[in-house]
Amino acid sequence: xxTEIPENALRNLTQLMTLNLRSNRLRDFPATVFRDLVKxxxxxxxxxxxxxxxxxxxxxxxxxxELYLDNNAIESIPEELFQDLPSLKRLHLHYNKIKTFPxxxxxxxxxxxxxxxxxxxxxxxxxxxxxxxxxxxxxxxLKAWLRSKAKYIHxxxxxxxxxxxxxxxxxxxxxxxxxxxxxxxxxxxxxSPWNACSRTCGSGTQVSIRRCTNPPPGRGGxxxxxxxxxxxxxxxxxxxxxxxxxxxWNECSKTCSSGNEVRTRSCQHSLTxxxxxxxxxxxxxxxxxxxxxxxxxxxxSSWSRWSSCSVTCSWGTRVxxxxxxxxxxxYGGKPCLKExxxxxxxx
Length: 347
Prior knowledge:
The chain is mainly β and about 350 residues long. About 5% of the residues lie in helices and about 20% in strands.
């Protein structure tokens, strides 16, 4: 017994004419699973557990003549589902759970969209019985549709009945008077007076509300549009404000030599604890902090002049020197590297 159909299961079956998936446990179909079945004439998916159908599930099946979707749990009919089936002659949708789509589903009522069957040819056999139709203003079209195709609809018109509202329960749709297909759209009450400010001092908020009860939506009617609450700012007397205690001093901004330390405080309303700008003084203090001296690496001075020759005749040498004092190393700084003296031979 099948529980699912992989999306590629029916690829390239372009000559298939009959597909029978009846009496399985299928819950849904991939949206493009039937796209290659261009010659399909009969499709049976009755007695499964289908609850939803992709809107373009049958797109491109121009030769499809028989479609059996009965005895499932289908709750809604996408308005484009049957619009691309020009050859359809038999449609079985009986014993499902067809509901309102999309708006009234939020109130648990049922109906079909008027455009769900647009494009179907006359001469088809359609079974719709056993669905929990909510006979409100949005289903009035179905009565006209059933009546206009009465001689073509096989054993369905008289057994297609209302389940709601209670006064029409069990009544065939064809016997419901047009004026009984009614909806009551919700209407707003007037806005309430503004309530008291949310704060007894300082800045706050006021609220005004309205209700969708004038009248409330009923029998598949629309909910009220718009918001049911609005707000505005309000200002009470000054709450009074004072500084909090100073924070601890933060770390010095330098790890050696001199830097700065900072501490802060905040201005708050005495009653509400909210921030205020009414305190006198500064929210921040700064002080100098002194750490150990920073290390200084030694740097060579410039070379001295060359000395006189070490002899008055023949070969001798001249010497020059430099010192590590520009500056000299301090506080753990690195000493100068390389030679202190240089010499060269001369005649």
